[in-house]
Every structure is written in C-alpha cells, then in structure tokens.
Design goal:
Length: 556
C-alpha cells in the first residue's frame, strides 16, 4: 500500500519479509546505490525512484531493530516503511524549518534513535549510550557540523563531525585503531557500518577497512572500488526476527574417561560421621552417553531445588579421620557450532521447553540475582533491555557483544553474582557467565550455568575448573556461550565464543543453586558444582585439615 502523508514526501511502503543478516544497502556517488539480495523490496523501489529524480542526492539508509527502514534524499525527502515511527514523526516537525537539511538518522539496538540535521542540529529519543548523547551535545554546543552516527549491536557507537572529527565508544579494538589512524592522518571518514554479527566496515576518503573480508558487503565494496566507484554509505539490515536463520551442528568430538580423586582429612578432630556429595553427571547437549561411578559407594538422592538433580550421597560413620573419594566420568563430548541456514534450507524441528523448564530457567537465584534494583538500573542505563519483536538469538547476540567490549577478566574476584559483576565491571568465568545468564533470564530468555572442568588432565595447581553458560533460542535449541573466553580474547571476533563449543569440557551439574541437606543445620545453596561437597559431624579441633584434588582425563 502506498500513500503520501506529508508534503516533504514521506511515503509508506509495506514491509517485506525479514531480510538475511548479510543483506545491505550501499550508496555511492551522487545517487548511485546497490541493494544485495534479501533487502526489503520497498526500500529498493524507493531508492530507485529517488534515483530517477536525478536532482535528489541519496544521503542515508537506516534500519530499526524490528526491520522498518528510512531513506533520506535531497530536498529533505524521506521514504519509510512505517509512518508511525517516532523518528519519522519528528522529521515531519523538522521539515517546517527551512534550515533543516536532513543528514542522518540512526536507530540504536536498545530502541533509541537520533536525527542529525543542519549544521549542528540533533534530536534524540529513547535509549542510546549516555556517552554518545554527551558527545552529540558537545559538538552541537561548540558549533561543529554533525555528519552521521552509527550504533553497533553491542552498544558501541561512532560519531562523525566536521570534516575529520571522530568520537567513539564501546567499539572493537581493531576499529579503534582504524579510526585513530584516520584522526592522526586527518583522513575524512565517510561512514561506519555495523553488521548484526558485530563485524564492521569503515569507508574513508582514502581507502576502506573491514573486520571480515569474507562478508558479502566487504566483497562487494572491494569489487566496486576496482570499478571506479567510491562508496559513501553502508547500511546492514537487522537479523532475522523469526525462528531462523540458524541451526546448531552437533557432532561427537571425543570420548573420554575422567577421574576426580579427592583426599580429605581432619586429623585433629573426632569425626562421628562424614557426609559426602558427588554429582551424577547428566546427559546434556554437550555431552552424551554419560556414565558416572563414585567410591566410596553411597545412594542416589535428589537435591531439594526445583530442578531436583540426582547426586550421590555417601555417609560414613566408622570414626575414620581421612577419606579418599574417586569420581569417574565416562562420556562422549559433543562439538556444537551455530551455523546459518543455507538458501532454501528449512529450519530444524526443535522441541520446545516445557512450561516448568521455562519457569526454572528464567527464575532469579542467589547467583543470577537480576531481581535486584542495582541490576535493573544498570540494564536500563546500558540499553540492554530487550526490544519489542527482538528474537532470542538477536538479543543474546547483542548482550554477549556488550559484555565482551565492556567487561574485563579478573581472578580471584569478589564479584561472583550477576549484580556484583555488573557493578564491578570485571569478574572471573563464574561471574561473567552469571552476568550473561542474568541478562537472558531478566529478558525472558531461558538460560543456565554449566559448571565443570576442561577435558584435560590437571597439571600442578591448575584444577581445570571453568564455568560456561547456555541459552535456549526458539527454533534453535540450547546455544553454548563462554563469556570469559570472549572477554579474555581481546583480539578475537565478537562471536568466536558464541555458539561455538569444541567439545572439550565436562559439565558436572545442569545449572546452579543445588540445595544440599547438611543433616546438622538444614539445606545449603551450592552456587556451582565442580567437584565434591562434604561436611562432617563430630568434635575437636580442625587445625590441620587437608583437602586435595587430582583431575585426570584419558581420551579413547
């Protein structure tokens, strides 16, 4: 349906199906453009129509997180798929100002947006990064010319002003280097475009750079420059908001037999009874065919949390002061890789979680304490609340990338829970995984922690303990993530540790917060289970107690 609603030529075009995450628009010259396969047909038609006007320069193409689009062209012209967008309504107001001269509109993943017009005019509504808003205001107040702003999926941003001015925040280090070189060499940056994956392309008057030469957009830019065209603008479509376009490829990676040998001693105490818990290691998407044995033999019990996970419980009341316990785990570890669906490939059939599982994996806990006001305030201030229509996968992408670029690794750390980690800005594997899982649960995406050990034998004091996480994406399944791996890999891509698991990790227990009976003082919450838990009842001193572990792994 087409209808003209403003004299400034705002045209409404019906939105087509969701585009591929690789789709993009490129503008070059005065009114040249290119739209890759999968771009909205309505936007393509309007660009073509604007091109036929000949006197109207194509200036900007922008997409909302939900897939709506806006095109700016000469004479303060605006084409859009949705006249009810707040930004479009603001264009209708600004159009009355003869000095408006629309330059750029940009939509942040958090739902906010910014319009730049005239020499230093700007308008922002909704949530955009605070530091970006301050820099826009600073440039405008100082009489600078605001040219464009781009928002990254992880909450980063790049502001271009005057001829060579650049401000930025929260962006990948390789892009920081490119922009700093441009500033130092007084090179004018024309545009920075961010793909939904977190990859980027930077166009300047003196060349171009990209984080991924294999992206379709990168290949097109390279070929177009060889043909003599100078690209000036690049806009990526948002990711697919439906069930796809991803699938998890799961394959056997290795078969292992792992042994955790634990020696416990209380030589100065009179021990009446030992209580020793060990995990009955579960079958999970990342580990199959699991067989667990535990010595000294005990009984299998259910812990008291809603998940009611199975554990071995051994009680020893023969007066001994020392115990050696051996936990043996045999399993096939599975590699998992998140892959895009091939053209025409139907999405896989994935069993949905039960209502009870959804409830359990979206609940707050002592570790995933997203119910606390300080966590909620941080989430809002960081623009990390889930947008209307934002898919499980798209939100997880955005939250994971934000953690990678805004947090650092610290061990040992006092910050272990989600709320503590967001306040500190740093933590270890447990804290960073708790932060990610807390964000997922706070935004109604099922998530769980995976505590365990790497599938490699212990050397010295390196116990090989680690904590990862998983989230459940509708139509995809349980997607593995390693938040501390991403934070620690400062030179790696945003998503090397997202949806990629080599099958080299043994998970001891499904999720966190196991409620164990102490028998002497009620239940206790065990945040992460990565070995044995033990208590003793008796009397006497406990000065020279010993606790040692040895983790060995054999590969078959």
């Amino acid at each position: 349906m087409k209808s003209c609603i403003f004299a400034l030529a705002i045209i409404l075009i019906g939105l087509t199906a969701a585009a591929s995450a690789d789709s993009f628009f490129e503008l070059d010259g005065f009114n040249g453009f290119y739209g890759s396969s999968g771009v909205p047909q309505g936007a393509f038609d309007r660009l073509k129509e604007s091109q036929r006007l000949k006197t109207a320069e194509l200036k900007c193409v922008a997409f909302t997180p939900g897939g709506d689009w806006v095109v700016l062209f000469g004479g303060n012209g605006v084409w859009t798929s949705n006249g009810n967008l707040p930004a479009v309504k603001k264009f209708a107001e600004l159009w009355k100002d003869p000095k408006a001269d629309f330059k750029c509109v940009a939509f942040a993943p958090s739902g906010g947006w910014t319009i730049l017009w005239g020499q230093n005019g700007s308008w922002t509504e909704g949530s955009i990064p605070d530091d970006a808003f301050k820099k826009i205001t600073e440039v405008g107040r100082n009489g600078g010319t605001l040219r464009s702003i781009a928002f990254a999926p992880n909450g980063g941003w790049v502001l271009l002003f005057d001829k060579t001015g650049v401000f930025y925040g929260g962006i990948p280090k390789d892009l920081v280097k490119v922009l700093n070189d441009a500033i130092r060499n007084r090179t004018s940056v024309r545009c920075v475009g961010f793909a939904p994956s977190g990859d980027w392309i930077c166009l300047t008057d003196n060349g171009w750079w990209t984080s991924n030469v294999d992206m379709p957009a990168s290949k097109f830019i390279a070929a177009n420059i060889k043909r003599g065209y100078k690209p000036k603008w690049l806009a990526f479509t948002p990711g697919d908001n439906g069930k796809g376009p991803y699938r998890l490829e799961t394959k056997p990676a290795q078969h292992i037999v792992a042994t955790l040998t634990t020696d416990i001693a209380h030589p100065d105490a009179k021990v009446d009874e030992w209580y020793i818990y060990a995990p009955q290691v579960p079958n999970l998407p990342g580990q199959q065919g699991v067989k667990t044995t535990f010595i000294p033999a005990g009984v299998v019990v259910k812990e008291a949390s809603p998940l009611k996970r199975s554990l071995y419980l051994t009680r020893i009341a023969d007066g001994r002061k020392e115990v050696r316990a051996v936990l043996t785990i045999e399993a096939t570890l599975m590699s998992r890789h998140l892959l895009p669906l091939s053209p025409g490939q139907p999405p896989p059939t994935v069993k949905e979680l039960s209502p009870e599982s959804v409830k359990n994996y979206t609940a707050w806990s002592l570790t995933l304490d997203f119910n606390k006001p300080e966590f909620q305030n941080w989430m809002n201030a960081s623009g990390l609340r889930r947008n209307n229509g934002e898919s499980d996968m798209d939100y997880a992408h955005r939250a994971f990338a934000y953690i990678k670029h805004h947090f650092t690794y610290l061990w040992p750390t006092p910050a272990h829970t989600g709320a503590e980690t967001c306040a500190a800005g740093k933590s270890d594997c447990g804290g960073l995984s708790s932060l990610f899982a807390s964000l997922m649960r706070a935004n109604a995406v099922p998530a769980r922690l995976l505590g365990g050990r790497w599938a490699a034998s212990q050397k010295g004091d390196d116990s090989k303990t680690h904590v990862k996480a998983e989230f459940f994406a509708h139509g995809v399944g349980w997607v593995p993530v390693d938040a501390s791996g991403a934070v620690g890999d400062t030179g790696g891509s945003d998503f090397a540790c997202f949806g990629n698991d080599a099958g080299d990790f043994v998970t001891f227990a499904n999720d966190q917060s196991l409620m164990l009976d102490l028998f002497v003082s009620g239940n206790v919450d065990i945040p992460i289970f990565q070995g044995l838990a033990h208590w003793w009842r008796g009397s006497g001193a406990d000065r020279n107690s010993r606790f040692t572990e040895m983790w060995t792994v054999q590969k078959k």
